[in-house]
Design goal:
Elements lengths: L6 H15 L2 H12 L6 H12 L3 H20 L13 H16 L17 H13 L3 H8 L3 H7 L7 H11 L3 H9 L11 H14 L2 H12 L6 H13 L2 H20 L13 H16 L8
């Protein structure tokens, strides 16, 4: 996703992603962040996450560690407010933190660690090839439908990772449920984590994102498909554990993100796209409201 992409193209890709590509656990957690009764504003969470992915990998993995440890300690003391039947994916977040730390220490701050590096080599190619074969389409037929060459299709099925929009186009043309392939490739021995009202949540998310403002749309899909070099599923997991933690700890984590962003921005170390910058005034407002609520013994600053 770039500044040149028009809103309508981003909306179409986003609607397709959340209707066809995003898995049940992904839908459950994002739905909870936007609509859930966790007591934090979605706008503040979005700006916090936008600031987070604009900082260096070193800053990102440290903040993620703070949130993950806070969640673990709160869970051990029965202080988390986790919605029923939505499970935290602690191994995913720990794997992402380790990958970000390794990338940062080896000088890969600009490129990040990307989603595919968390999984086995050839993960994306094998998944795409399997979906094409299951659909009955040949490489020649798929190339024609996508407006690509057969050589490009062959490369994508042989280890080359396509862009987010190309991946969406692949499954859209095949008319295949991409999230099932992603989940079954990642967790071949597990059942799909489907819970009651999943399709209702999916529909509500799509309707909300279809009607949201241009800025919110771009921030959201920059997190999903942007060039920040972090795993979207790990970002989502981090924010889910963040809102399940006590309010006082949420304030500390949010302020850590804000301070880290401000320091790197002033020293010109902050990375990211200028067209999806966080609204720092809104983030500071939410932090003030959260601080006041926590000082007065409240579990939330928004009901």
């Amino acid at each position: 996703m770039s500044a040149e992409d028009p809103d309508e193209r981003i909306r179409q890709a986003g609607e397709f992603y959340f209707s066809t590509v995003a898995g049940p656990a992904e839908i459950q957690k994002l739905h909870y962040l936007i609509f859930g009764q966790h007591g934090s504003e979605w706008s503040g969470l979005l700006d916090m996450t936008s600031a987070h992915v604009h900082t260096s990998l070193a800053s990102r993995y440290r903040v993620a560690e703070i949130i993950q440890v806070s969640y673990d300690l709160s869970a051990a003391n029965h202080l988390i407010r986790q919605p029923p039947r939505i499970e935290a994916d602690r191994p995913l977040l720990l794997k992402a933190i380790a990958a970000a730390k390794e990338a940062s220490l080896s000088g890969q701050n600009a490129s990040g660690y990307t989603i595919w590096q968390l999984y086995e080599p050839g993960f994306c190619s094998a998944m795409m090839a399997r979906a094409r074969i299951d659909s009955g389409a040949t490489q020649k037929e798929l190339a024609k439908a996508l407006g690509k060459t057969e050589h490009t299709i062959h490369n994508w099925e042989s280890g080359h990772s396509p862009s987010f929009l190309d991946l969406c186009a692949w499954f859209r043309v095949l008319n295949m449920p991409a999230w099932r392939y992603i989940h079954c490739t990642l967790y071949p021995s597990e059942n799909l984590p489907v819970v009651e009202n999943d399709e209702t949540r999916r529909d509500e998310l799509i309707r909300y994102l279809s009607g949201t403002s241009s800025q919110e749309l771009r921030k959201t899909f920059y997190l999903v498909a942007g060039t920040h070099g972090s795993n979207w599923l790990a970002i989502l997991e981090m924010m889910f554990e963040h809102v399940c933690s006590p309010l006082a700890q949420r304030v500390i984590s949010a302020r850590s993100v804000l301070i880290g962003y401000q320091m790197e921005h002033y020293s010109q170390q902050a990375a990211g796209e200028v067209h999806v910058m966080p609204d720092l005034e809104n983030l500071e407002r939410c932090i003030r409201l959260g601080t006041y609520a926590a000082k007065n013994g409240k579990a939330a600053y928004k009901t």
